[in-house]
Write a structure and sequence with these properties.
Elements: E1 2-11, H1 15-25, E2 29-30, E3 34-36, E4 41-47, E5 52-58, H2 66-71, E6 76-84, H3 87-96, E7 108-109, E8 115-119, E9 128-133
Parallel strand pairs: 1-5, 6-9
Antiparallel strand pairs: 1-6, 2-4, 3-4, 4-5, 7-8, 8-9
Length: 134
């Protein structure tokens, strides 16, 4: 069902500093920051030859990652994102198997302008999983 790894998301306390580490120290191509108010985050994508790293920083007091950053002040890995060919079929199969979809269960448009949904970490070895329509 899952396809390629689309990205690994890392929550960071300082988006500019984190982008600098990837760009200047590691020589990666780094995007400009993009505010996503509907998701409560600002993102920067680090392009790698085989996938991406998504740097996340809270946008506003009600950001869904604010608590994560409060619990992990230095930041840390937040989720992994896998591509699926049909997000609705994947959701339905996973739910039928007992997996929990976070939120109302309906895909939302994510940072790549494609439908995404999140799966509860307790159902996936302690890891928050994002599925993205390929």
């Amino acid at each position: 069902m899952i396809g390629r790894l689309n990205h690994v998301a890392i929550v960071v306390p300082d988006l500019a500093a984190a982008a600098s580490v990837y760009r200047d120290a590691l020589g990666a191509k780094v995007s400009a920051p993009v505010a996503l108010p509907t998701h409560g985050v600002t993102t920067v994508f680090v392009e790698l030859p085989n996938t991406k790293i998504e740097l996340l920083h809270p946008l506003g007091d009600k950001s869904p990652i604010a608590r994560f950053l409060a619990d992990h002040p230095s930041g840390g890995m937040h989720h992994v994102c896998y591509e699926v060919d049909d997000i609705y079929a994947a959701r339905d199969k996973l739910k039928a198997g007992g997996a929990r979809v976070i939120g109302d269960g309906e895909p939302k448009i994510g940072a790549h302008e494609k439908p995404v949904l999140f799966l509860h970490p307790k159902d996936f070895c302690g890891t928050l999983v994002e599925l993205q329509q390929a």
